[in-house]
Amino acid sequence: MSKVLFWIVVAPMAAAIIVFSVNNRTEVVLDLWPLDTVPVPVPVYALALAAVVVGFLAGGVVAWNSAGKSRRRARTESRRADQAERDLAAAQDRIERLQSEAARQEPREELAQLPPDSF
Fold first, then answer.
1. Which 8-state DSSP code applies to residue 65?
2. Strand runs (DSSP E) across the chain, as ranges?
3. Could you read off the pLDDT tens digit of each residue along the chain, which spans 119 residues?
4. Fewer CB within 10 Å, N or C, the chain?
5. Closest of 22, 28, 20 to residue 44, by C-alpha
């Protein structure tokens, strides 16, 4: 299902990019003003697609930085959960050990001498 959804989204997007690139082949001169470089003729579609890619990457960086607090909290809670599981396993082992020791011991005399319950 996810592959079908992927192709439903990607195929029209690829077609739109191809149509845009074919229709905007006109060259513009790219001159980076503060830098002393030679002006370079570049197709309009290349500038537009480069701007989209840079914007996508910048958005990814911003989203990744914004989620840092959540990732840190998730790591902390994961460590706490692991420690709680280890503590629980140790407590269960101790309970089992104490129960097996109690079962091996003979009944105490004072408990054996108690009268039966009479209600």
1. H
2. 27-30, 40-43
3. 889 999 999 999 999 999 988 998 899 998 888 888 888 899 999 999 999 999 999 999 999 999 999 999 999 999 999 999 999 999 999 999 999 888 888 655 555 555 666 65
4. C
5. 28
The length of the chain in residues reads: 119
Can you tell me which residue has the tokens 């011991």? Answer: 105
Cβ contacts of 26 within 8 Å, gap of 6 or more: 43, 44
Close Cβ partners of 17 (under 8 Å, ≥ 6 residues apart) = 49
pTM for the full predicted model = 0.59
State the Cα–Cα distance between residues 85 and 28, nearest whole angstrom.
Answer: 64
